[in-house]
Amino acid sequence: MRLSQAIDAYAAHLGDVRRLSPATVRAYRADLVDLLSSTGDIDVRAVDLAGLRDWLWRASQRGDARSTLARRTSSARGVFSWALDNELIDVDPSLRLVTPKKPQTLPRVASAEGLDELLGRAQAAASEGDPVALRDHAILETLYATGIRVSELCGIDLDDLDLSSATALVMGKGSKQRVVPFGAPARRAIAAYLARGRGALAARAEKPTPAVFLGVRGGRVGPRAVYDLVARSISPIVGQSAGPHALRHSAATHLLDGGADLRAVQELLGHASLGTTQVYTHVSSERLRAAYRLAHPRA
User: Fold this and answer.
1) How far apart are CA 186 and CA 170, in angstroms?
2) Exposed/middle/buried for 230, CB within 10 Å: 0-12, 13-18, 19+?
3) Crossing angle of the two packed helices 184-196 and 112-126, in degrees rounded to 10
4) Residues that are catalytic
5) pLDDT over 90 for what percent of the chain?
6) What mean pLDDT do residues 27-42 have?
7) pLDDT 10s digits, 66-95
8) DSSP secondary structure string, 139-206?
9) Distance between CA atoms of residues 185 and 150, nearest Å
10) Angle subtended by helix axes 223-238 and 112-126, to nearest 10
């Protein structure tokens, strides 16, 4: 089997058997297509460790980040492990492929005070009754209250919302559903948007949609529109360009600062591994150390 055929079959396996999200499958395929451009469309049995190392070396020479190299190493290991299981190859050439260590970077976090001011301004704009302003306020409140991903927010339908219990059903990575709670401010913002904003936006659509959050033309709002909204709103608070994940990071950090259990935060964020959630404990520890240095007389 040619390498290109193996990549196609592996991508189909990821989507149809492992039920990974389309975005994840595209990321794996992109990494492996990059490998294909380095080795050529040779027989999959002809790929060896030297060829894989040369591929990663070329990527490092063109300036790819270590995190990108680590992800591509993982993609290569995945496809060749699958190929070995399916007897397409006799030896897995990726077994001795070393994964570059990812640099430890802490997520950008906005202060609770800064977010209070941001949400206050969004609420003031929404009070004028503009449908888009009502929607934007509801989106910002929901993202901060729940810590959900932008893709999860965009996927929420009307039937997924329960305002009486202040919960929403979201579809996370790997098509895994979970129920997330939100507080009174988010509930009020969502209720105001549904009562006075969504109908006006829905009237602009060519056909109805069950989506909660709508775009300016009445269809389901897209991730890019939400990204632009959050980036425009939160970047001045964190002091540099930032996207929706900064709001997610902030929600998680503020929960831990307030005494929330780490596993509860893991469940709220939809992390498969507790290790992914633990990065926020480092953020909280840094804040604690900074406060200690400022306040303790013998710091």
Assistant:
1) 16
2) buried
3) 20
4) 149, 173, 245, 248, 271, 280
5) 52
6) 94
7) 888 888 999 999 999 999 999 999 999 999
8) HHHHHHHH---HHHHHT-BGGGEETTTTEEEEE-GGG-EEEEE--HHHHHHHHHHHHHTHHHHHTT-S
9) 19
10) 130
- Residue 44, both tokens: 């999959």
User: Across the strands, what pairs with 49?
Assistant: none
Extract the runs of DSSP E, i.e. beta strands, from the chain: 161-162, 167-171, 177-181
Residue 258 class from Cβ within 10 Å (0-12 exposed, 13-18 middle, 19+ buried)? exposed
Residues linked to residue 180 through DSSP beta bridges, in sequence order? 168
Mention every residue, 6+ apart, whose C-beta is less than 8 A from residue 52. Answer: 35, 76, 93, 94, 97
| pLDDT-derived band at 2, boundaries 50, 70, 90 | very high
Whole-angstrom Cα distance, residue 282 to residue 261?
14
Tokens representing 72 are 């591509």
Look-up of token digits 């929403």: 168
Lowest-pLDDT range of 22-26, 107-111, 212-216 = 107-111
pLDDT tens for residues 180-233?
888 899 999 999 999 999 999 999 998 999 999 999 999 999 999 999 998 888
Alpha-carbon span 289 to 299, nearest angstrom: 9
Distance CA 230, CA 226 (A): 6
Q: Provide the percentage of residues in the chain whose pLDDT is more than 70.
A: 83
pLDDT at 299 over 50: no
Which residues are CB-neighbours of 132 under 8 A, at least 6 positions away?
197, 201, 216
Cβ burial of 232 (10 Å; 0-12, 13-18, 19+) is exposed
What is the rounded CA–CA span in Å between residue 214 and residue 132? 9
